[in-house]
Write a structure and sequence with these properties.
The chain is of the alpha+beta class and 473 residues long. The chain is built from 13 helices and 23 strands.
């Protein structure tokens, strides 16, 4: 079953892109803005961006130090027409895109990304649609089409951001409340992440599963995955986003898999579809920083696995992944030791950096994850999460060193291969989560080049025990 796409519905084969597109893929170590670089899409090497394109993508704005942007959510965003209405990216506190740098041509630093996953409650069918984000004051490069969804569709919308804080604003005073949009708890923001209607969506998904309408396919198996010691297994289970083996960042459920096309000459954006890619000369593909994209786009192919996919309603039903689909798969096949959103992640900490279980529960509920203290959550209390990162992911990386070293790095400014990239992320997460507070030692020793990118990694795979943990492995 390795390498076979797990597709929720019967799909036609995807049409290969006939155009080499420059990919700006923005991944990072930790939560800063470092570690972004262009990566070629697919096998062919993409031509270099023109000087004009590079200028649009990299020239600092008048407010180049800005870390926050505002995203204007269209009216009735859960409806078909609302999904097809572009979101508008602009500055906070009345600042314009030019003043703030909050424009999609600056997506590497301050780009916003939106992703909808749709359930037909009468059939259990799932689909994906990525609403478009445009810079306020611009028009789409190609007008989005209205997706064909049933009148009673249950829709969840997930948001990602390449800056630090994304503020949501409604097109009308009632927009956000009516769509169940949340971006934090009690004035304490999630930061890069926001959601609309996730609680209702996952409740409907679970109901469809219980009623037999939605049967989530198995994650599948892979003969490429090695166990501790490097021995290849026979049909080892492919990982899901809640596996500690692949929870490469401090948050295991972080950001969307959305892609947009950018016309580098005009700064206009379009949905990433086969048709649009063929009609926008010199288009650049924009990605969000995303652990889900790391798993779906990089780790799964290296391991001989495939993500759960559903028809992309913007792209002639071509199979596509999404953050919500990753969570549906992980929920249906949750590992015994589950990497849930940790309470100690910066996104769910309260004022002053204090643990805030209510905020963590709100975040988890938008992704269908168990609450703090709920069934299966003990492995993700702050001490246990750290211990499991050390004791589960480290041996996985060491055992699969050769396989991952041959894999493509999402960002060569972080690591020169998939292995060194993940090793750097593991080490950064250890520090960002304060794992040393629990008597643990960073299990990764990195060798870096003059630019700071990891070019080698050594692992200490001896088991460690976190102080104050009752739910670790």
């Amino acid at each position: 079953m390795g390498g076979v796409p797990r597709i929720a519905l019967q799909l036609s084969a995807p049409v290969a892109l006939g155009l080499a597109i420059g990919l700006v893929l923005a991944f990072q170590a930790g939560s800063g803005n470092s570690g972004t670089d262009p990566v070629p899409l697919g096998a062919p090497q993409s031509p270099s961006l023109s000087g004009a394109a590079l200028s649009l993508l990299t020239t600092p704005s008048a407010a180049s130090t800005a870390v926050a942007c505002e995203l204007i959510v269209p009216a009735d965003p859960l409806s078909a027409r609302g999904l097809a209405t572009p979101y508008q990216l602009t500055g906070v506190d009345g600042a314009t895109p030019a003043q703030s740098g909050c424009r999609m041509s600056n997506a590497v630093k301050l780009g916003a990304f939106v992703q909808a996953t749709i359930l037909d409650p009468s059939t259990g069918a799932l689909s994906v649609y990525d609403p478009l984000v445009v810079t306020q004051g611009t028009r789409p490069a190609v007008k989005p089409t209205v997706p064909p969804i049933p009148a009673d569709a249950v829709v969840t919308i997930d948001f990602g951001f390449n800056g630090r804080n994304l503020d949501l604003a409604g097109a009308t005073p009632a927009t956000l409340a009516a769509a169940g949009c949340v971006s934090g708890q009690g004035g304490s923001a999630f930061g890069q992440i926001a959601f609309c209607n996730g609680v209702a969506f996952f409740r409907a998904v679970q109901q469809a599963e219980r009623g037999g309408l939605l049967r989530v396919p198995s994650p599948g198996t892979s003969d490429k995955i090695a166990a501790s010691g490097g021995a290849l297994g026979t049909g080892r289970a492919c990982p899901v986003t809640r596996n500690f083996e692949v929870a490469a960042d401090q948050a295991s459920a972080d950001n969307v898999t959305t892609e947009y096309l950018l016309n580098p000459l005009t700064g206009q954006t379009a949905q990433d579809t086969t048709s649009n890619a063929g009609n926008i000369a010199g288009a650049t593909l924009l990605f969000s920083r995303s652990d889900d994209s790391l798993l779906d786009q990089f780790l799964d192919p290296a391991l001989g696995c495939s993500p759960l996919q559903a028809p992309d309603l913007a792209d002639n039903d071509q199979p596509a992944s999404s953050q919500a689909l990753d969570e549906i798969l992980a929920g249906a096949y949750q590992p015994k030791i589950a990497a849930l959103m940790p309470e100690s992640d910066a996104a769910v900490l309260g004022p002053g950096g204090a643990l805030d279980p209510a905020k963590a529960d709100l975040y988890r509920s938008e992704l269908g994850q168990p609450p703090v203290g709920g069934r299966g959550s003990a492995a993700s209390d702050p001490a246990a999460f750290c211990q499991n990162l050390v004791d589960i992911q480290t041996p996985f990386l060491a055992a699969n060193r050769a396989l991952l070293a041959a894999g493509q790095s999402p960002a060569t400014t972080v690591g020169d291969s998939l292995l060194t990239y993940m090793a750097a992320r593991l080490s950064a997460s250890f520090g960002n989560l304060g794992c040393q507070r629990f008597g643990l030692t960073d299990p990764v020793t990195l060798t870096r080049n003059g630019a700071g990118a990891a070019i080698g990694a050594a692992f200490t795979i001896s088991s460690q025990r976190a102080s104050g943990s009752a739910g670790a492995s």
